[in-house]
Amino acid sequence: MTSKLFTFVTAAAIGAAGNAQTPHLQPSAPRTIVTADAAAPPVVRAALLQSTLIELPAEEKVATVFGGDTVSWVFDAGHVASRYISIKPKVADSTTDLHIVSDHGNEYTIELKEISTEKDNPHFDSKVYVTSSDPRAAENIAKSPVFVPAAEADAKEAQLKKEADDARKALEADHKAVATAAESYKATYPGTLHFDYTWDQKKGAALGVEQIWRDDKFTYLRGKFQETPALYELKDGKGSLINYDFANGLYTIPKTVAQGYLSIGKQRVDFRQIKAGS
Q: Which residues form the signal peptide (predicted)?
């Protein structure tokens, strides 16, 4: 195998394995949630590497934000007073409460939940409008804002700046660790590839088979097919359909297949793994 083909095969294998294991997160349409003193906090669904924007009523601005877990979550209300808060989780499956106090003295409490590992519902909230059902909230909005003394504002700003800086450093460290792990994986992955399958090359060429190989977790079949062949696994001489992903001429099977075959009509190409010493 040429170095150019080996590079192409390796890239395809890495891409296929990643697609098989990474959930596809999708943003939900913006929605409105209503907080109430006598009810449980509404849940906002957030996702790793995604930002969820919390928006207060048009008449209010964020005065202060408190979170139960400031290690696993980043809350950013910006350096200039506004009605927006950006929410970003750093740990999968984590949850925390979030308390928002507006410049009019209204309080909003919500629950944040990280959902990237949920398989039945991959949708996360990209934008959420928050209001309150408390009659006093409307009364407070009709009044003048509650101003914070300059000394307290400066102290709070310094605290928020430190927390944001700590969060940024932690996030940078996380990104660096992920990048290092990815580079290490790319460097070691070629050594896990095994091109130890045999098949009838003439029949394979007629059907469109180009290469069959495996790594430690998957078996791959690459070809240029006029029509997508059915894929079977052979056990005790009997063929059975198996689970696989197929895209752009590449079969990705989530296990090692010792023996099997591809079939279209009367055309059939058997393949098997070459055991050591055989």
A: none
> Which phi and psi angles does 58 have, rounded to 5°?
-60, -30
Write down the residue that tokens 């359909």 correspond to. 241
Overall pTM surpassing 0.90 (yes/no):
no
Give me the domains of the chain, ranges plus CATH numbers.
26-142 (2.60.40), 197-273 (2.60.40.2500)
Look at the block and give the residue holding tokens 């290490």.
Answer: 184
Residue 40: CB atoms within 10 A of its CB come to 9
Beta strands in 215-266 (DSSP E): 219-223, 230-235, 238-241, 245-247, 250-253, 259-264
Smallest CA-to-CA distance from 170 within 67, 72, 60, 100 is with 72
Each residue of 123-175: pLDDT tens digit?
Answer: 999 999 999 999 999 999 999 888 564 445 677 778 888 998 889 888 888 88
| Structure token digits, residue 24 | 């596809």
